[in-house]
Amino acid sequence: MAIQSKEMEQVDNTVIGESILINGKLEGDEDLTVRGRVHGSITLTKTLIIEPSGVVKADATVRNAIISGVVVGNITASESVHLTKEGRMVGDINSPRVIIVEGAAFRGRVDMGAVDEVKLGERAARAATTPASKPAVRPMTTTPPRPPPAPPKPAAKPAAAPSKAPEAFKPPAPPPPPPPALKIASDESAPVPVGLGKRKVVVKRKK
User: Fewer beta carbons below 10 Å: N end or C end of the chain?
Assistant: First the structure.
């Protein structure tokens, strides 16, 4: 630990004066009041007090912290952290009890996990002592299984158009019979019937 100027009172409360700059690691079992500047880390079993003239650029692990000056770093306190209206802090606070007065400047996160654990323990104890209510039993209803769906029917083929039967071949009508031929008698005197009714035609041979 490098100490440029030393002004400490060996009493229950150790004071770092305004003209003192400490670079390094501070550990102790007493209260520490910072009026000057501390760079490094601080570990105390008691209270850290940072007055309005004090500037601490370090991570601190203490029992209690009262901040009225400037702190750049994280503070872990086993009991409480109190940031007054003159206090300025950039860093995270981890403590079961955190007090930030109106007018103070703070940028960081606050973790009050110890308080959450106590609350969770109380809730668990209450849940253990409270008799658990029995869940309502509802009668089971069984539904018959549904039959499997019928397979899809094949699409009906369109009926073929009836084919026209070929018309039967009709032979052509026979020609009418020729009229009977005229018979010529060899005898001039013999008449030749022609078949023209009752009339008779006689053909004579020319000489």
Answer: C
